[in-house]
Design a protein that fits this description.
Elements: H1 2-21, H2 24-35, H3 37-50, H4 59-66, H5 68-71, H6 73-76, H7 82-97, H8 102-114, E1 120-121, H9 124-130, E2 135-136, H10 147-166, H11 179-186, H12 188-204, H13 209-224, H14 227-242, H15 247-271, H16 282-288, H17 298-307, H18 311-325, H19 330-335, H20 342-364, H21 381-388, H22 393-430
Antiparallel strand pairs: 1-2
Helix pairs in contact: 1-15, 2-7, 2-15, 7-8, 7-10, 8-10, 10-12, 14-15, 14-20, 16-21, 17-18, 17-22, 20-22, 21-22
Length: 431
Amino acid sequence: MLDKFTQWIEKYLGGPMANIANQRHLRAVRDGIIAALPLIIVGSFFMIVAFPPLPESWGITQFLTANAETILLPYRMSMYIMALYATFGIGASLSKSYDLDQVAGGILAVTAFLLTLVPVSIPEEATEIAGVEGFVLPMANLGGEGMFVGIVTSIIAVEIYRLTDKSNFKITMPDQVPPAVARSFEALTPTLIVILLIGSITYYIGFDWHAFIGNLISPLISAADSLPSVLLLVLLTTFFWFFGIHGLAVIGSIARPLWLQLLESNSSALATGEPLPTIGAEPFYQWFIWIGGAGATIGLAILLAFRSKSQYGSKLGKTILAPAIFNINEPVIFGVPIVLNPILMVPFIGAPIVLATIAWFATSLGLVNAVTVTAPWTLPGPIGAFLATNGDWRAAVLNIILIIIAVLIYYPFFRVYDKNELAKEQGTTEG
């Protein structure tokens, strides 16, 4: 039965899911956002500095809180405008997939995105107060709220670039001209088209890109920040992983823009002293569900390292435990293996669902803070949870409790797996 089901999955789902994960535009979105990840991580750490997890009576806490507005400036120029950086990454990645100049594609993408923003003139009465005159850009649309507009306009800009290159509708310079100069002239035509097209739609037709796309995706954002949505994403991710398909690559490519917008909602609320509005941002998955990697496999790694009676399980466990602590679980998934292993399928899918449910209610009831920071994913679980929740020690405790629960869920299935491995070894020895 399992063999037939596996063959069906490979025939009807394996290929299509792999194609989705490698689809040109989705891959560009994924790679573009990942390219901006260092800025998101480093920028978000200024939130911890501005609002330190220290007693309020301490002098250093009072000093940092009093100067929070200044301390947060690097955050506002990094994570707060992450859509701007991600847009360049998306344009560059998509251009690379078409064998076009990456820098030109990235610049075109940023140009198209900025042309969706309407500069606002500062009134004279506000000039003296703000110390700024002229025009300003609405920064809110440069962050998570503008991410989907950035995705759409990046794709439009690069596709225009591709069409002008493919049709040879461009200015071609002689071979004697330096390559950098030649590429600049080749980009003139698509740049003209992008500016005329996007600029006319925004400024002359009066189309509000951000309001339109915001209205379209608002139901998706609301749905993404719900327990059923979290459980569905967990189920799909582990289901694909079980058949050897990188579940996070498939699901993450689609959900990551939503996760980033949820995260920015929390970090912006923290910066302004407002209640944190969302739960299901990506760090929630990282530190309370994917502990040790997809499937919460740190539970299995611990059992293999310390409870295995079979030689293979024991040696494998000691080998994979260190990577699992740092959330690298490919050795577990392919070394045990978990892929196509009917014994371990239940805990691999079931453990993250249980952990997600517990963590969701713990956060919604205020037992732990919601996530506001993107901590490096290779940190050990309790440390990452502590940092991701802006220094909430209760999150570190919850992470440890969830690891223990993962161990308990994996235990009966591990016993069956280890018993089978031991029987194989004894049979080989006796033979």
